[in-house]
UniProtKB/TrEMBL annotation:
Protein name per the record: Signal recognition particle receptor FtsY
Gene Ontology MF annotations: GTP binding; GTPase activity; signal recognition particle binding
Function of the molecule: Involved in targeting and insertion of nascent membrane proteins into the cytoplasmic membrane. Acts as a receptor for the complex formed by the signal recognition particle (SRP) and the ribosome-nascent chain (RNC). Interaction with SRP-RNC leads to the transfer of the RNC complex to the Sec translocase for insertion into the membrane, the hydrolysis of GTP by both Ffh and FtsY, and the dissociation of the SRP-FtsY complex into the individual components.
Chain residues that bind GTP: 377-384, 459-463, 523-526
Source species of the chain: Aureimonas glaciei
Recorded topology in the membrane: Peripheral membrane protein
UniProt EC number: 3.6.5.4
Length: 574
């Protein structure tokens, strides 16, 4: 806390002491997020998942088969059994099976009979052949069997019959499908799920994974031995366990005493820095490899510098930063040999220099109560999740938070925010789907004042029909909030998905113009991230980057640190 010009200000830096984790984000329709004239010339589209899926669907019409049989889903036992029978039937009925070559004749094994057992004695009495005594209550109903006709071998002896199986036509159909339905399903395979235009499934959404911490202890099956031992031990009657164990010298058997396996220790989550490095590993590995290839046993000349500049631009770092790095590299080194690690060190330094001015903590001015944070961004970039994580940080810091479910476009987003509200002890102001988001924000502001909240965080929809609609809604939210508080929203946070790449630049351009974005959060840096774009954004817009998302968990929001990020981009660990 610090006094500033008579204002009571609280600065949240969320230091390390406290913070010790369907598809790719759907972008706005391309016409809504067209790069502007200011966007750099080098534009590489984000991977088009829909197109890829469509292509593979076109080329692979049949059901997918796991390359690794071990990885293939295991069929239920009865299914497997019927499949085995079916296979056996195919063997039995396989045309040409009788054409198989005769096995080579094996020499007659010498028969050594030490003492002829009674049952081999040709003079022994005939065994009993009347088994009528086996019939309990009359004759057993005949089970109709379809047998494979016994083939006769060329020498007149019956050929061996492999199996007697029900005919293929009598194999049971899955209980849920009638014969017609099966035929229909086979005639018209349903690939509608591959349709990139199809609306996303909205309901029912399962957010149970957001619920309170999962019990790490593996649940023992009721009545399992370890369960019993545990309960007995708990009751302090260990002796009873030994005497109760089925063991008998008289019976000649006993249960083997197996030490109960130690419960598996819950896997500790990886430190966030490790997740960040792993997330950026693909792009940093690529960059690092190109640096090695470019600078091994080669003098620094104009051509090498030009190639290196291209490599940096391809890594999304932006033209401005790429030029700065190559300029710095050539200083005093032109015409000399330079190692890959020297280049990587310079890269890390220059990226850090670009990022340092934007790596600032989120500052909350509690003179304005509630401090209003409007969270905007393309749908799927992590707005709602970031709100939940941020609410957790603030409430742990002793602040009272109200959440506004302003994404009235998507029912699941409202439910998701309610769960975050429960988890963080924050009141959630929500309305039915389709409600006016601006009206809701207005009511939420009043509710936050009434309940004495320090901070009001407003979620917004990212997916609107077109850019005009998006602008109109966000502008209206800002306008109605300003009727209550002229400086609201005090912070406008935009979430950017780190897996997006170049498109993030145009997203910032649009949301900055529409909603007055004054801070960024880059999410999903734990995935296969392309973090270079953040450097380009920092160089171009100089907007503060408050946090990075390194997982879906409540604690997976980290303050943005320029040095660590730069090192991860350059693939350096120390
Ligand atoms: N791995 C990872 N996943 C994240 C992160 N942040 C968000 N997600 C996931 O990204 C998905 C989308 O996040 P949301 O918070 O629903 O995104 P949104 O912007 O609110 O989406 P809309 O409500 O559709 O506008 C969810 O599955 C989140 O769990 C992150 O930092 N790392």
């Amino acid at each position: 806390m610090s006094e500033k010009k008579g204002f009571f200000r609280r600065v949240f830096s969320f230091g390390a002491a406290e913070d010790t984790s369907p598809a790719p984000a759907e972008m706005l329709p391309s016409e809504t997020l067209l790069p502007t004239a200011e966007a750099p010339a080098v534009e590489r589209p984000a991977p088009d998942v829909g197109a890829t899926a469509g292509e593979s669907a076109a080329t692979v019409p049949a059901l997918p088969v796991a390359a690794d049989p071990a990885a293939a889903p295991v069929a239920p036992m009865d299914e497997r059994a019927s499949h085995a029978d079916h296979t056996a039937a195919e063997h039995a009925l396989a045309p040409g099976a009788e054409d198989l070559p005769e096995p080579a004749e094996l020499p007659e094994p010498a028969l050594v009979v030490a003492d002829t057992p009674e049952w081999l004695d040709p003079d022994a009495p005939e065994p009993e052949t009347d088994f009528s005594w086996l019939e309990a209550d009359g004759p057993v109903e005949d089970v109709p069997e379809r047998t494979v006709p016994v083939e006769t071998a060329s020498d007149g002896s019956p050929a061996p019959v492999l199996h007697e199986v029900p005919g293929e036509d009598s194999l049971p159909l899955p209980a849920t499908l009638s014969g017609d339905a099966v035929a229909e399903a086979e005639d018209e395979p349903d690939f509608s799920f591959l349709d990139p235009e199809a609306p996303l499934p909205e309901e029912p959404a399962d957010f149970s994974w957001l619920e309170a911490p999962v019990d790490d202890e593996p649940a023992d099956e009721a009545g399992s031995p370890s369960d019993a031992v545990a309960s007995v031990a708990a009751a302090g009657i260990a002796a009873a366990t030994a005497s109760a164990a089925p063991s008998s010298a008289d019976a000649g058997w006993r249960l083997r005493q197996v030490a109960a396996p130690a419960p598996a220790a819950p896997a500790a989550p990886k430190p966030w820095l490790e997740r960040l490095r792993e997330g950026l590993a693909r792009s940093s590995g690529q960059l690092s490899g190109q640096i090695t290839a470019l600078f091994t046993k080669r003098r620094l000349d104009e051509a090498t510098l030009q190639e290196f500049e291209d490599v940096l631009i391809q890594a999304d770092l932006g033209v401005e930063t790429a030029l700065r790095i190559t300029d710095r590299l050539s200083e005093g080194r032109f015409g000399k040999e330079i190692t890959g690690s020297e280049v990587r060190a310079i890269l890390a330094d220059e990226v850090e220099a670009t990022l340092r001015p934007v790596a600032v903590p989120l500052e909350l001015d509690l003179e304005k109560k509630p401090h209003v944070i409007l969270v905007v961004g393309v749908n799927g970039t992590g707005k709602t999740t970031t709100i939940g994580k941020l609410a957790a940080k603030l409430t742990r810091g002793g602040l009272k938070v109200t959440l506004c479910a302003g994404d009235t476009f998507r029912a699941a987003a409202v439910e998701q925010l309610k769960i975050w509200g429960e988890r963080t002890g924050s009141e959630v102001i929500a309305k039915a789907i389709g409600a006016d988001a601006a009206g809701l924000a207005f009511e939420a502001y009043d509710a936050a004042v009434a309940n004495g909240s320090d901070v009001l965080i407003i979620d917004t929809a990212g997916r609107l029909q077109n850019r005009t609609e998006l602008m109109a809604e966000l502008e209206k939210i800002v306008r109605v909030l300003q009727r209550r508080e002229p400086d609201a929203p005090h912070t406008v946070l935009q979430t950017l998905d780190a897996t997006t790449g170049q498109n993030a630049l145009s997203q910032v351009e649009i949301f900055r113009n529409v909603a007055g974005v004054n801070g960024l959060v880059m999410t999903k840096l734990d995935g296969t991230a392309r973090g270079g774009i953040l450097v380009a954004i920092a160089a171009k817009y100089r907007l503060p980057v408050y946090f990075i998302g390194v997982g879906e968990g409540i604690d997976d929001l980290e303050p943005f640190k320029a040095r660590e990020f730069a090192m991860a981009i350059a693939g350096q660990t120390a």
